Amino acid sequence: MSSLAVDKVDPAVGAAPGAAQGPPLRRRVALVPTLTLLLGAVYCLLPVAWVVIAATKSGSELFSTFTFLPGTGFTENLSDLNAYREGIYWQWMGNSALYAGLGALLSTAVSAISGYALAIYRFRGRETVFNVLMAGVLMPPVILAIPQYLLLAKVDLADTYWSVLLPLILSPYGVYLSRIYAAAAVPGDVVEAGRMDGAGEWRIFTRVALPMMVPGLVTVFLFQFVAVWNNFLLPYIMLSDDEKFPITLGLFTLLEQGANTPALYTLVITGALLAVIPLIALFLVIQRFWSLDLLSGAVKS
Amino acid sequence: MPNTKHSRFVATAVAVTLGATTLAACGSSDEDGEAQSGPAKLTYWTWTPGMDKVVDLWNKGPGKEQQITVTVKKQASGDTLVTKILTAHKAGKGPDLVQAEYQALPTLVSNDAVADIAGESGDAKSKFADGVWQQTTLGTDAVYAIPQDIGPMMFYYREDLFKKYGLTVPTTWDEFAETARALKKEAPDIDLTTFSANDSGLFAGLAQQAGARWWTTEGEKWKVGIDDAATQKVADFWGGLVEEGAIDNQPMYTPAWNKALNTGKQIAWVSAVWAPGTLTTAAPDTQGKWRMAPLPQWSKSDNVTGSWGGSSTAVTTDSKHKAAAAKFAAWLNTDEEAVAALAKEGGIYPASTSAQLGGAFSEPPAFFSNQADFYTEAASIAKTTAPSAWGPNVNVAYTSFKDAFGKAAKDKSDFGAALKTMQDATVADLEKQGFGVAE
């Protein structure tokens, strides 16, 4: 997602000249890194700017006026998008929110519990399980879409909301990340102390370990959310009813309308712009959980 | 056809993974779907805009009487849809009806995804031109689909700019080349048109007009004639124009191309009957300045055109109600009210010959308000459509065209060699798929 990159690059660009504020370092502005970062910022921001500006252009302005000259059609584009097939765009938006929100939540829960188990408990086959998961991390989800479709079609779940949600719940990368994070963030001593105090394993997990894992889990959640929000192939294969389409698929049908119908570029561009807004909002809201230092005070080392 | 990069990527991705899982997908055969009419709920995959409104006419009218209800599931068009249909078919979960481009039918038939509805299609044959109907039978006694829309090719040009540069409308391809050269002399910055290596369908249509038959059968074997004399003639003609710089070599359906059309940097377009819709969005400032004429011919005495685009309605082998589905498909594409609604809601140019001069086509398209007889002319051009011959791996030939001709157009190198590459890739793929190929 470019929004991620934007958030990261922007302060960095600002920070480079700031670092050179001390008088002795005055002439020492790191020119090459600054330029590189500026270039990176432009590279990431330019397409975003294009979408923002193109969304303001009416159909006749889109390809005929200067690329970065704002147009006059934004409200018209919005109302066209709103009116297209009785507002099916919002249905797609809602579907995307459901797939991404619920999917990421479920997947984070599964990742948390399995990551914790793999990190804390020692049992036979632990490394094998983990190695299989690592292989899963290397497997691009694209390859799995069709086998998953054939399996879900067998149990009559194709073309349902579950057909998109179920394959998303187990995320090897999420489990991997959770395990690494749990191993680092949940000290064995704390778990041991919980046991001494007579707490059950479930209680230790929910009351002691889980709060410590929150920053890691937030990362897993965000990764999953963005991955699902941008996912295309899985829903494409699974769904045939366009009322269940997520936004990616919906916009695709607007582009590919057959040879005799031109693509609805203005609607797609406006729709794409609106589709990024929830992601940006999510990042802004959740970002602060990243910096929490829950470890402090748990164990003194 | 507007075929964007990402859709091609998706098609490739799906195709690759599909290939990897064919083995895993045996079994699941519910063959008890006795073809019977009566109470039936059908699903229909289509990309035509507004199809739900047309289907409503059926559900409230003839469908209600016969207790056949159809539900539209709108899809994105293109090769990706073919792959999706085949994937669904592997799982035995295909819809009852699908929209399929003519060149995709052999692929669907060879994968046993669409059913023969010869017994249920009634007198539909009489409503269509022979060249159109032949595409749905693949030259056999079977009927695999009912034609829906067609794309007879035509020549579009800027009337005002032709006058300005002192050009006359070419009636033969030789004159077309002369026109391109004359324009270059008059205005070196302006191009008559461009050769687009992105649009395989356009090239296929041009070859079809020249008499090429890319896929034919010889006994039990396929014969690939992509590198035949007729196609070579077409390839050399366009390759020559690109090489000498008489026309542009940039692809169509890009923002740059839109701009070129809109600002009069390109003043003609070899296209099909649906061009007005494309021009409306691509070149909005040029309304009323275009005219349509028949495609230039290879010799003065000829009168043939090719086709670019067009699609049909097919019944799948997965359907449990094939007869009901065939009934709907026939109604959709031959009933007067239905076809008029298709034209109005979906903007299609109907395959049904009587509908081509029906009420929906008494007025020219708004973009061509200056050419009152647009649709009368179009209908008479449509009659001259040459037969086409599609095979089971058109998508491979098309991809190979984009790669080989894309490179040749960019380098302004030999189009004949590119054609050879396309032929070899198509034959190799057929053999790999296990088809017999005749030399």
Features:
heterodimer; A: 301 residues; mainly alpha; MetI-like fold; 14 helices; 0% strand; globular; disordered N terminus; B: alpha+beta; D-Maltodextrin-Binding Protein, domain 2; seven-stranded mixed sheet; two-stranded antiparallel sheet; 17 helices
Write structural notes for this entry.
The complex is a heterodimer of chains A (301) and B (439). Chain A has helices at residues 2-19, 31-54, 59-62, 74-83, 88-120, 126-138, 141-154, 161-169, 172-185, 188-196, 201-230, 233-238, 247-255, 265-290. By secondary structure, chain A is mostly helical. Chain A has a domain at 88-290: MetI-like (MetI-like fold). Chain A is globular and about 70 Å long. Chain B has 439 residues and is α+β, with helices and mostly antiparallel strands. Helix content of chain B is 43%, strand content 13%. Chain B contains 17 helices and nine strands. Chain B has helices at 5-21, 51-60, 62-66, 79-90, 105-110, 130-137, 159-164, 173-186, 200-209, 229-243, 255-262, 275-282, 322-334, 336-346, 374-382, 394-411, 415-432; strands spanning 40-46, 68-74, 97-101, 146-158, 215-218, 221-224, 268-272, 290-294, 307-315. The radius of gyration of chain B is 22 Å and the shape is globular. Chains A and B meet through helix 7, helix 12 and helix 13 of A and helix 1, helix 4, helix 11, helix 12 and strand 9 of B. Chain A: The chain crosses the membrane at residues 29-53, 97-121, 128-152, 164-187, 208-229, 263-286. Chain A: It is found in: Cell membrane. Chain A: InterPro entries: MetI-like, MetI-like_sf.
